[in-house]
Amino acid sequence: MLTRMDSKDKEQLANFVASRHQEISSDVLFKVSKILEDVRKQKDQACKAYTKQFDGIEMDTFKVSAEEVKEAIQSCDPEFIQALKKAKENIEFFHRAQLQQGYCLQKEDGVYLGQRVLPLQSIGIYVPGGRAQYPSSVLMNTIPAKIAGVRKIVMVTPPNPQGKIHPNIAAAAQIAGVDEIYKIGGAQAIAALAYGTRQIPRVDKIVGPGNIFVAAAKKLVFGTVDIDMIAGPSEILVIADEEANPSFVAADLLSQAEHDPMASAILVTTSESMLESVNEELAIQSVRLPKQEIVKASLRDYGKSVLCDSLEECVELSNAIAPEHLELMVKDPEKLLEKVTNAGSVFMGYYTCESIGDYFGGTNHVLPTSGTARFSSALGVDAFIKKSSFLHYSKKALCHFADQIEVMARQEDLEAHARAVSVRKEECR
After folding, report:
1. CB distance 166 to 76 below 8 Å
2. What angle do CA 75, 150, 116 make, to 5 degrees?
3. Which residues are catalytic?
């Protein structure tokens, strides 16, 4: 059952969604900072000790061999392998269009300036282990980096009780083009990627989801390396008109509710009967799900429904919330899309469920949460590049503008800056 809210409470609803962002406690930060410092100083020795402590596994070598990858993949479902390959094609198709080009601008007197677009040299991808395994995240994090031109892509993932990696993760890594895989998880894996050890290489950026300890580690190493984001609980907002199928709407709300007890599912509609029908469908469908306890907690605490006077009002409410996933289950989604300003990713029409984007459609599923779609974007090729500017002034150009540059430098009381120009003016006479 979704809790009914008034459409006029836009700010209240937006704050409600944003407030689910899980604050990292000082206790967790303290514990993680100790792990980071140990790995920074003791390198592989600390990694081995923490792997034994947290995973119950004694590891001598963290790197996964080509033979182990091959053996793991042989146990995968062939249909799953084919689905991964097709998903890869779709993800590549979408992300290739994001590639940027540098430029060079010519001016008079031998002045030229421009910008270079350069790939990061190396990245690390964290892939959770344990009961949850997300091969789709391997594709979503790896493929944009490959397209950007990243030279080395390293993946870390916790070992299972037998000291192996999950076959589906191995398959996704090989298909996506991961260069190296290491069996290590938790904060110690983030530390190894940030600082480097004898076995595990240091990287320039770390991406990928993890538990609260992984999130804390990413937060603390930011600045030593770049990170993608500190993601909050998942969320979906569905805008449905009177022609939408309540069964579809309920199924899509449940697809996010099963992620986490803190996941948020919100229905915004212009139809009173839609609200009632969707609640009925939620009751019917939720009892069939393996994770029904998680679903019930999510819907009870973070499931909301709102009745609006118009679709335009629905979009206004959605823009205030800035949802991670936005579904436009309306007759003319293209027209409504023009009014959407804040959303991580938008799924258009009655048949484009968010699950398509999670796995197969090609758009990236690593998205801003907790209202951060107001100012941040989905993971993409841009996340794996950097931009460097260049500038050239000829002697003639320097002589022409030297006085103006000197004036500006001295206005900021930076005499050495001014004199760097002055010494060159000697040749202008």
Report:
1. no
2. 160
3. 324-325
d(CA 256, CA 328): 16
> Distance between CA atoms of 370 and 82, rounded to whole angstroms?
34
Cα–Cα distance, 86 to 179 (Å, whole number): 20
Q: Quick: pLDDT tens for 311-321.
A: 999 999 999 99
What domains can you pick out in the chain, each with its CATH number? 3-21+232-361 (3.40.50.1980), 26-112+120-227 (3.40.50.1980), 393-428 (no CATH)
Locate 119 and state its tokens. 């790939």
Tokens 């008079």 belong to which residue? Answer: 108
> Is position 392 annotated in a ligand binding site?
no
Q: Is 126 annotated as a binding residue?
A: yes
Ramachandran angles phi, psi of 370, nearest 5°: 55, 35
* 166 among annotated binding-site residues: no
> For the chain, what's the residue count?
429
Provide the terminal-to-terminal Cα distance of the chain, rounded to the nearest Å.
83
- What pTM was computed for the model? 0.94
Encoded tokens for 202: 């240091």
Q: What is the pLDDT of residues 411-424, one digit of tens each?
A: 999 999 999 999 99
Helices 212-221/186-195 angle, 10° precision: 20
Whole-number Å distance between alpha carbons of 113 and 102: 11
| Residue 21 DSSP SS3 | coil
Which pLDDT score is estimated for 32? Answer: 98
pLDDT, tens digit, 9 for 90 and up, residues 109-138 = 999 999 999 999 999 999 998 667 899 999
359 is in an annotated binding site: no
CB-based contact 221:320 (threshold 8 Å): no
Cβ count near 416 (within 10 Å): 7
Residue 57's pLDDT band (cuts 50, 70, 90): very high
Instruction: For residue range 345-400, list pLDDT tens digits in order.
Output: 999 999 999 999 999 999 999 999 999 999 999 999 999 999 999 999 999 999 99
DSSP 2: P
pLDDT value of position 131: 63
**Over the range 256-277, which residues count as b (16 or more CB within 10 Å of their CB) and which as e?**
bbbbbbbbbbbbbbbbeebbeb
Residue 7 has pLDDT above 80, yes or no: no
Identify which of 309, 307, 315 has the alpha carbon closest to the alpha carbon of residue 335: 315
Name the strands in the sheet holding 226-227, side by side, starting at the edge strand that comes first in the sequence. 180-183, 152-157, 122-126, 205-207, 226-227
Report whether 33 belongs to an annotated binding site.
Answer: no
How far apart, in Å, are the Cα atoms of 63 and each of 76, 182, 422? 21, 4, 57
